[in-house]
Amino acid sequence: MLTFAITTTTKLAGLSLHKNGKYLGEVKVEVAKTHSTTILEQIDRLFEWTGTTLDEVENVLVSIGPGSFTGVRIAIAVVKGLFFNKNVRFFEVNELDALAYQAFYQLKGIKNDIENVKIYSLIDSRKEKVYAAVYQVQKNLENEFELKQIKDYEVKKLDNIIEEINNSENEENYLVGDAVLNYKGKIIEKIEEKVKIFEDNSLKISTTTFTEMFFDEKLKETNIIDLKPDYLEKSQAERDKK
């Protein structure tokens, strides 16, 4: 079973392939402007390097946002074009959820007790505005750790996030996402004692997390028609019409 995962939601394009319990390959490329000119070449190279073909793909995992309006559309358009009329299953990935699970999986590997840890997923929307969601680690009825979303997806100013964390009584607040990397200086200056930040190479999304979520049954299955972006806010063009 070959599973293909893709995101172009932020400046970092991510691709990966997984087959029969094994990761075959992953590509990460950060671009200054748009992924549209390079993403197909990256996909070709990934399949070439792993000795696989598009016809072998059974599952497609794709980020639907939030993030760059152009970036989100690129990944969705690409998979619709590549897998049109092919017998594949489509699964949508909210990238804020994926970032939280990426942090959750990492914490489970390095800490024995992570109950009540809060995870803030933060994607940069430029000019200190972020896409945000908040999650908490809890124990289920089987006494196993699980991740629960405790605040809905929002578009907020970084200052509001900082104020919220500063007023929080929770002592273990983990931050993840490219906004953390981009605004790390300000975050540390304002709330260093209130937050824990992962290493830089763990702050941005990896599509291997999509695959882990897929096997943990955390992704929503969709179809090629209903696969659509989730922007969280209106585009600048739509806002300018008002």
Brief sketch in words of this structure:
The chain is α/β, with parallel strands linked by helices. It has helices spanning 39-50, 69-82, 95-110, 158-166, 178-182, 184-191, 207-215, 236-240, and strands at residues 2-7, 12-19, 22-30, 57-65, 89-94, 118-124, 129-139, 145-157, 173-176, 195-197, 220-222.
Q: How would you describe this protein?
A:
This protein is an alpha/beta fold. It has 2 domains: 2-94 and 205-240, Nucleotidyltransferase, domain 5; 96-202, ATPase, nucleotide binding domain (Nucleotidyltransferase, domain 5). It is built from 8 helices and 11 strands. It has helices at residues 39-50, 69-82, 95-110, 158-166, 178-182, 184-191, 207-215, 236-240, and strands spanning 2-7, 12-19, 22-30, 57-65, 89-94, 118-124, 129-139, 145-157, 173-176, 195-197, 220-222. A 6-stranded mixed β-sheet has the order 3-2-1-4-5-11, sandwiched between helices. Strand 1 and strand 2 (12-19) form a beta hairpin. Residues 237-241 have low confidence and may be disordered.
